[in-house]
Amino acid sequence: MLIDLHAHSDASDGTDTPAELITLAAAAGIDVLAITDHDTTGGWIEAAAARPPAMGLIRGSEFSTQVALDGRTSSVHLLGYLFDPTDPTIVAEHARLKIERRRRGLAIVARMVDDGLPITANQVMAIAGNAPVGRPHIGRALMASGVVASVDEAFATHLAGRAKYYVPKVDTDLLTAIRMITHAGGVSVIAHPRGRGERRVLTAEFLAVLAAAGLTGIEVDHPDHDADDRAELTEIAARNDLLTTGSSDYHGSNKALRLGQECTRPEVLTALVERTSGVTPPLGPVS
Ligand code: AMP
Ligand code: ZN
Ligand code: FE
Ligand code: FE
Description:
This protein has a domain at 100-156: DNA polymerase, domain 1. It is built from 11 helices and 8 strands. The chain has helices spanning 18-27, 44-50, 88-114, 121-128, 135-144, 151-157, 174-183, 198-201, 204-212, 227-240, 266-274, and strands at residues 3-7, 32-38, 56-69, 72-81, 172-173, 187-190, 217-221, 243-246. Strands 1, 2, 3, 4, 5, 6, 7 and 8 form an 8-stranded mixed sheet that branches. Helix 1 (18-27) crosses helix 2 (44-50). It is globular. The mean pLDDT is 97. Bound molecules: adenosine monophosphate, zinc ion and fe (iii) ion (2 copies). The site of one fe (iii) ion has 5 residues, from loops.
């Protein structure tokens, strides 16, 4: 069973439409895919409609959250699966983040324009379309205008957190987001807990606090994690009754990753589904 529980479409900052994402996953031999666009469920209906009968689909979203520690705020990505997409708190928070992402994207672009870079706000907004604006959309504009050769290069130079154009956005408090997803009948899994910013705040002690607050699992097998990260996270999960997932975090041509590059064990998926309220069931076969 090839189970990939973290993938982006152009409903956020991937480059494939939700239907293309499903078709590509089926062609890659994926048995179960989760669509997890940033701060939106906007791709769910199109993905569900494109699903071949033999493929399982888990509907999810990657929530932008933050943790304040020692006077600094760090960003943490939280995967929510199988929650009620009409839950008023989630609908309101996704709507707030859409506005917040647009404000912040326009602020980053304004700094670049002021500095003489040949991109425009309209160009970036056209690339984003109806998606919540993300830095990869700005990266694509920089690429189209010949400033960089790839989105990866854009992140290394113009879009990084330490770059002079960087503007932060105000994300949801992590504990609030975990409770919000649980309340909406879903399960929550921390995405890439040993990614760049997350490492500082997601100590073993704090992960234990999150587990007690209802966190369901952590992503252990992720392209950004090395062998030591995976060993450490596996041990933390075992001590705190957290499930451990593996996923590609596919973003189409915005990132050099393959669908199914990392995957989740079938018994973990079964346990995830069992811990939901059933309000948004998996579609198709998942075991
Ligand atoms: P934002 O949500 O606007 O803060 O942008 C962060 C997004 O950019 C995340 O979803 C990452 O997947 C993506 N990202 C981070 N680093 C890179 C990179 N080097 N190349 C392409 N995308 C990246
Ligand atoms: Zn992304
Ligand atoms: Fe992420
Ligand atoms: Fe992601």
